[in-house]
Amino acid sequence: MTHEPPPDAEARKAAPAIVAYAVENLPPVDTAMHARVRESMTKVDEILVAPRDASTFEVDAGQVFRITSVEGPQVGDLNVWNRHDLTERFFSGKTHQLHGTHVDAGDRLWSSIPHMRPLATIIHDTLDWYGYDDDGGGVHDVIGTRCDPYTNATLNGVDYHHCCHSNLSRALSNYTGQPIAEIELYVHDVMNVFMCTGFTLDTHEYFMKASPVRPGDHVEFMAEMDLLGGLSACPGGDCSSTHSDDEAMCYPLFVEVFQPSHEALEGWAPSTVNTYDRTHGLG
Question: How many C-alpha atoms does 243 have within 13 Å on its Cβ side?
Fold first, then answer.
């Protein structure tokens, strides 16, 4: 049942939209330093993430990691942790409140409360030309979660073990040596790298569409602390049709880690824990 609108319904709907956070108060992004970093960096590690699977990788503070599409269009689900404390991890909800539903160069990946500080900063993106399309879709989504076997079991009644949540759980279990039932609690909502998504204009339902990514496209992140990354090559492939099954054509993703020169990092320091005193009014 839909209730009758009150007499002032239109006036209530006409209230102005207010941007919730004064993001101009965030510390400025040093694009000149990022340019120096990119010019000076040399590769120190690489890993190929297999289709419908996930891998972990380590990145030291000040290093850069690059995720590249290879062989064919493929989206990836990215988890990021403080390497020394897995309870500090990517906070997708706060990231999209501060930077929008989709992120791009100059945006930061923020960590969870109570730390709430930058984990990484996006410093380069070959898909920055995409913007938002006529459906309201954009690339590099931080609004969706990761495909998971629990939702798949609820909606489709089958167990599928290569959803991104399962992929990331296996990878993290292999990295830590902890049982998967325990370690999956550290797997969290993701940055959907290369994924094109939005909300339908009429019903505001979450949608996905074919990613514009092509082999060679990449996105780069500068680590603001020692990081552990986890990347799943989603079973949805380019997410143009289905996910959480073996029907889509899937391709690997390539991760590279780079070390900038000491000169390029001069004056830079790792991010620090949030300054809030954590008394919550009881101190």
Answer: 29
